[in-house]
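Lab notebook, bench 4. Still working through the backlog of constructs that have no structural model yet. Next entry is a single chain of 118 residues. Request: give me the structure tokens for it.
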Amino acid sequence: QVQLIESGGGLVQAGGSPRLSCAASGRSWTIYTMGWFRQAPGKEREFVAAITWSKGEEYYADSVKGRFAISRDVPKNMVYLQMNSLKPEDTAVYFCNADHPYSGEDYWGQGTQVTVSS
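Model written out:
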């Protein structure tokens, strides 16, 4: 059974630096691209960052580039999102995602709320 379980969200002051974690289980992730998306109230889900499992190639949305860093721990099957210099507009539910680039398999976690207070 495939599971993506996020943790690390909560209430954070502006300028804070929390780290989100995603525990990925249920299959080999070698070919997958692991990502973080977020959805703010009343808005569509948007891409935040992604990393290829095998090579560790990183991709970022312009809105978080230079502030957020995605990483993975292959032996532990973990994906992280280090968030720095948080702003109130970063408030959202953050979702972990696993995407197979060829088969279209796509998995989501349940999400973790991050609320940034000004």
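Notes after review: The mean pLDDT is 96. The two ends are 40 Å apart (CA to CA). Flag for follow-up if needed.
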